[in-house]
Amino acid sequence: MPAMARGFRNRCPHCGEGRLFGRFLKVRPDCEACGMEFHHHRADDLPPYLVIFVVGHIVGLGVLESEMRLDLPFWFQMTVWPALALVASLLLLQPTKGAVVGLQYALGMHGFAAIRRAGAGPAGAPAEHETEMRHGGRTDGRNGGSGRP
């Protein structure tokens, strides 16, 4: 998804030009290039979980492999692996949060759906046909013949 890639690179998921972050993990209220509003995103908890999952697997594999194949001193392992985990986590946290904001934009989650329906969506996207899924139902009035609203 292009919006996720733009977010991963700290760019606006809509235009790809403006910066997504004002500070390290603080998403800007809007894009400085196209004016897309970001204040309604909900990317607070998922990025750290994803980073912990990825870094934990990489560092954990490194710890296990070095313990089985190499004879490294204990002090070395207790210095290198936590430092590597800290640096990798700090390097991945902002791009991961940007990708999650881009995913929310691409899927029309939270406030992004209303903005895209209003015509601020990406060029060529049929904004009038987009729907937002809530509790398993469509919000555009077409419910597939079911009795549910």
Automatic annotation (TrEMBL):
This is Zinc-finger protein. Residues 127-141 have a biased composition (Basic and acidic residues). The lineage of its organism: Bacteria, Pseudomonadati, Pseudomonadota, Alphaproteobacteria, Hyphomicrobiales. Keywords: Membrane, Transmembrane, Transmembrane helix. The keyword NADP does not apply. The keyword Transmembrane helix applies. Pfam families: DUF983. InterPro entries: DUF983. The chain crosses the membrane at residues 46-63, 75-93.
